[in-house]
Amino acid sequence: MSTEIATVALHVERSGAGATPLLLLHGMTGSSDDWRHVFDLAALRARYDVIAPDLRGHGRSRDIGERFSHRACAADVLAMLDAQGLQRQPVAAIGLSLGGNTLLHAATQQPERFSALVLVSTTLEYDERARAIMSQMRFDALPEVERQRMRAVHGGGEAQIDALIAAVRAMADDPAGATLAEAELSRIAAPALVVYGDRDPLYPLEMALRQARGLPRAELWVVPGEAHLPVFGAWRPTFEAQALAFIERAINAS
Questions:
Q1: N or C: which end of the chain has fewer CB within 10 A?
Q2: Which of 206, 203, 232, 235 is nearest to 97 (CA)?
Q3: d(CA 251, CA 150)
């Protein structure tokens, strides 16, 4: 379904029999459909009230807005939660890369909205290495399998894909919308699990350590031998078990 908020129209998938809201935020150039590669969604929906939007410009949320940034996505998510009737009920949340960055910004702005955070391959800023990779992103330079994936995910076709890639390059040139000071993390009261591959080519492992130090109730899980987004493939079942166990502990302790 489409949820109208002040800035853009977001496509949101919401279903589940559980009483606890669980927010799932995908990564850059992905969509809410990505979660079928991470979780057994039928089992997840039996336990939680699962809310999975397509972030602005992604998937079925084709409007990218005037300026794409982590802060803009965070404002979208908070407004979407209001539109879903969740103004007063805290949500547990899992975010992948862009989704995790969005969660960090949302939780520093309104920490009372979140009961637990799982932050996978997230960053507080774009360093020179990340900006170099982002600034060089071109659709025609991507592997064919990745181009096919993006065409399947983004129903707006090449125009939508071009807008997303332009957004990535623009963030590399103007990273202010992604930057969080470590001191801002102290506002987040919810328990947080920081998940990082120790060979992430985009964000250095030191970034995970900075987050774990700055978040008041953080746990750090460094996945050995893995790169960006180490939650797919061989590590999927381990991540699924660890992430949900962490969320259950956080909810039961609150």
A1: N
A2: 203
A3: 35
What tens digit of pLDDT does each residue of 117-135 get?
A: 999 999 999 999 999 999 9
Domains, the chain, in order of start with CATH, read 2-126+177-249 (3.40.50.1820)
Q: Check: pTM over 0.90? Answer yes or no.
A: yes
Cβ atoms 214, 183 nearer than 8 A: yes
Select from 221, 227, 178 the least CA-distant residue to 201.
227
Residue pLDDT, tens place only, 31-59: 999 999 999 999 999 999 999 999 999 99
With 0-12 / 13-18 / 19 or more C-beta atoms within 10 angstroms meaning exposed / middle / buried, residue 4 is exposed
Would you list the DSSP string of 193-246? EEEEETT-SSS-HHHHHHHHHHSTTEEEEEETT--S-TTSGGGHHHHHHHHHHH
* Residues constituting the chain: 254
Q: What are phi and psi of 158, to 5 degrees?
A: -60, -35
- Mean pLDDT, the chain, as a whole number? 94
Rounded CA separation 89/113 (Å): 7
**Measured at the alpha carbon of residue 231, what is the angle toward residues 101 and 124, in degrees to the nearest 5?**
20
Alpha carbon distance, N-terminus to C-terminus of the chain:
32
d(CA 57, CA 119): 21
User: Which helix (H) or strand (E) element contains residue 166?
Assistant: helix 157-173
DSSP-derived secondary structure for 11-53: EEEEE-S-SSEEEEE--TT--GGGGGGTS-HHHHHHHSEEEEE
Looking at per-residue pLDDT, the higher value among 6 and 14 belongs to 14
Distance of CA 4 to the CA centre of its chain: 20
